[in-house]
Amino acid sequence: MDTLYALVLAGGRGTRFWPLSRKERPKQCVSLNGADAYLSQTVERLSRFIPKERILIVTGKPMEAAVRSVLNGIPDDNILVEPWGRNTAPCIGWGAVEIGKRCVGAVMAVFPCDHRIGKPDLLESVVLSAAQAVAATNAFVTIGIQPDRAETGFGYLAVGPEAGTWGGHACHTVEHFMEKPAPDIAQQFLESGRHLWNAGMFVFSVDALRDAFRTHLPRSATALENIAHDPSQLVTEWGNLDATSIDYGIMERTRHILTIPCDLDWSDMGSWSTISEDLPKIPGGHGTARTVVSHQSTGCVVHAPDKVVALLGLENVVIVDTEDALLVMHADRAQQVGKIVRLLEDSDEKGIT
């Protein structure tokens, strides 16, 4: 589709990956286990079916240099640098403004920058099907991931009846969104077979998004229209954009939303515990270190490339060692690392965040 563009969201700090992820070089720009940075992997995956001149990246000022350093073949003016972070609705709205200037009737697909997708061919097929559904219905289409466990760290979609088939993939209505559930509710969602994980991957037309902003976030719509007419007003108008996520601001409010259920062998790679299976096996768990010895230890995650690490009687412990910081925690606290970062920012050690 000549009208299909991608917008990759690369402005997050990745605080749950501290101390490896830092403000000026966040997780998406870091190489783990010798692999390309997650942002590089995302762009190369998308470039299989969307040319790089139609892939835009949105990021923040502190990490601009790091983002540019890991990108190959993306035009300079395709890298959008936010004046400051205001959540995902403003940056997606700005991305739509830029894409709309380049292509009348454009369809845009939005992707996080740091997810793992083990089935890139299926992703291509699903996104192209979603783009066809958007062109036919003017709906918003979200890619829903078939859950394989009662996960409490993700949002969910309640799936309704089938609405049609485009490109070989059935689209279903979305009855409503649910935020991160309690463990018993997550188990009910898994057993129901009617709920999908919300992976934060969306496909919609620029025109439909503009209309949704006018309906649900009118103050933001006005600011975006001013930016479209006069790009020099970006900094002035940025503070007038609602600081909210695209999920809260648009997706949970619109009635015309569809989903394509799929199994992409997906992980949000959101914390040290979820990344573990992508790291090499070591005695006592997964990770990287110069040498690891283990006695009566299981389920541990280690990142200490230059160290000898000894694990003794540990279960589900995460150890991350960098030049200037050391993190040790139980794996079930992996979603809470951001709290440590905030404590450090309030202390005399804010320079290491």
Structure notes:
This protein is of the alpha/beta class and 353 residues long. The chain folds into two domains: 4-267, Alpha-Beta Complex (Spore Coat Polysaccharide Biosynthesis Protein SpsA, Chain A), CATH 3.90.550.10; 276-352, no CATH class. It contains ten helices and 16 strands. The chain has helices spanning 38-46, 64-70, 88-102, 120-137, 183-192, 206-216, 218-229, 234-238, 246-251, 337-345, and strands spanning 4-9, 55-60, 79-82, 107-112, 116-117, 140-145, 156-166, 169-178, 195-205, 257-262, 266-267, 281-282, 285-295, 300-312, 317-321, 326-330. The strands form three sheets. The protein has a five-stranded mixed barrel with strand order 6-9-7-8-10. A five-stranded mixed sheet has the order 12-13-14-15-16, with no helix packed on it. Helix 1 links the parallel strand 1 (4-9) and strand 2 (55-60). Helix 3 (88-102) crosses helix 6, helix 3 (88-102) crosses helix 7 and helix 6 packs across helix 7 (218-229).
